[in-house]
Design a protein that fits this description.
By secondary structure, the protein is of the alpha/beta class. The chain has 3 domains: 209 residues, Isopropylmalate Dehydrogenase (3-Layer(aba) Sandwich), CATH 3.40.718; 127 residues, 3-Layer(aba) Sandwich (Isopropylmalate Dehydrogenase), CATH 3.40.718.10; 34 residues, no CATH class. The strands form 3 sheets. It has a 10-stranded mixed sheet with strand order 2-1-3-14-13-4-7-12-10-11, sandwiched between helices. It is globular, with a radius of gyration of 22 Å.
Length: 398
């Protein structure tokens, strides 16, 4: 096996521990890699005024593959207060480094599988007929357009003359907001491009075909957000009719989808959405499979750069516990997505099988799996530490 170089970006809070334990699992499973650590996150914002240093961008440009832990983000005013004294009042404005990565490298394809493990005490259950209890197996993969939409960063407060003139050219703006003082306005845009929308749709249909999913669902709001959501569904119709006729195309509104995901989640296969709605629906489905401790993701560009990360946050209060209590499975599953991408599928299968066996046995469970509040005392109450969960998975690899 070729020894690969992987950029390791622990980031903030619990990011470091889940990345380190995941690297330990990868090594035990037979994956050989050199890990080059890159700087990203809150620490570098506070001391350098830049949470995504240029040196990190250079490493990613060189090596193309990264494992990413988690970052901390705070509102603009709070972020400014935490800058080093010599950086105060210099016009520096915090922006999310992961959003910066997505836009700089055009990591426009985001894949978020949400698959339930048999035996997970956190799996979604519902009441069936005659007071029976049902536990539907969830196997949903969300494709989220990752660079455009509401997260595109095209925003204004107190818009300048050019922007304000453009806004007032729309009759609905004049009718609904024309009497609002300009200094009281904040505007965020939702921009979809045909090229990027087509790319995420093709990625979703390709995945459905490759892994034998019967349907692709466009989850947007075309009955209200007619231009952007409407364009996505129209393109999906054209693509499905011409190139994927064997795959059913479904159309759901985001609000209805959030209701249906707890009514009949087993009915859905591949779901595709814009940036914000993809973020929402993927967190919703993650809740059905046990929460963000089980939610993995991949982000990919068109020119071969890929970043793999759990979708949970940095949970900074947990980072300072004497023994780490967080669940590393989301990070481990993200690494398995990396292995799939690198065509190391046998190792990925081995790790996923080990994770499934640990969950099914139920002997080793982190605090979330035991439905405990997260605090340092859970270790004394029988919850596994982060390292103990990784040890249990490694033991099953043998």
């Amino acid at each position: 096996m070729t020894t690969r170089t992987i950029v390791s970006m622990p980031g903030d809070g619990i990011g470091r521990v889940v990345v380190e334990e995941t690297q330990r699992v990868l090594l035990a499973a037979g994956f050989k890699a050199n890990y080059v650590e890159a700087d990203i996150g809150w620490e570098f914002w506070c001391k350098e005024g830049n949470p995504l240093p240029e040196r990190t961008i250079k490493l990613l440009e060189k090596h193309k593959i990264a494992l990413f832990g988690a970052i901390t983000s705070k509102p603009k005013d709070d972020a400014s207060k935490e800058l080093a004294a010599d950086l105060q009042n210099k016009g520096l404005v915090y922006s999310s480094p992961i959003v910066g990565l997505r836009q700089y490298f055009n990591l426009d394809i985001c894949i978020r599988p949400c698959k339930s493990y048999q035996g997970n005490p956190l799996n979604f259950i519902r009441r069936g007929r005659n007071t029976t209890i049902e536990e539907p197996l969830v196997d949903v993969v969300i494709f989220r357009q990752n660079t455009e939409g509401l997260y595109g960063g095209v925003e204004w407060s107190n818009p300048d003359n050019v922007v304000y003139a453009a806004l007032t050219s729309h009759p609905k703006f004049v009718k609904n907001f024309g009497m609002v003082p300009r200094e009281e306005l904040s505007v965020s845009t939702r921009i979809f491009s045909k090229n990027a929308t087509s790319r995420i749709l093709y990625a979703a249909f390709d995945y459905a075909r490759q892994y034998n999913y019967k349907s692709v669902t466009v989850c947007e709001k075309p009955n209200v957000i007619r231009e952007t959501s409407g364009m996505m569904f129209k393109l999906a119709q054209e693509i499905q009719k011409k190139e994927y006729p064997e795959i059913d195309l479904w159309n759901t509104n985001i609000d209805a989808q959030m209701m249906w995901l707890t009514k009949n989640p087993e009915n859905y296969g591949v779901i595709v959405a814009g940036n914000m709605f993809g973020d929402i629906v993927s967190d919703g489905f993650a809740g059905l499979i046990g929460g963000l401790g089980f939610a993995c993701s991949a982000q990919m560009s068109n020119d071969g750069l890929a970043v793999f990360e759990p979708t949970h946050g940095s949970a900074p209060k947990y980072a300072n516990y004497p023994v780490s209590i967080v669940n590393p499975i989301a990070m481990i599953e993200s690494a398995c997505m990396m292995l799939d991408y690198l065509k190391e599928k046998e190792i990925a299968i081995k790790i996923r099988k080990a994770v499934a066996q640990v969950i099914m046995e139920g002997k080793v469970q982190t605090y979330d799996m035991m439905k405990m509040p997260g605090n340092p005392n859970v270790i004394n109450q029988g919850a596994a530490s982060t390292a103990q969960m990784a040890d249990a998975i490694i033991e099953k690899l043998a």
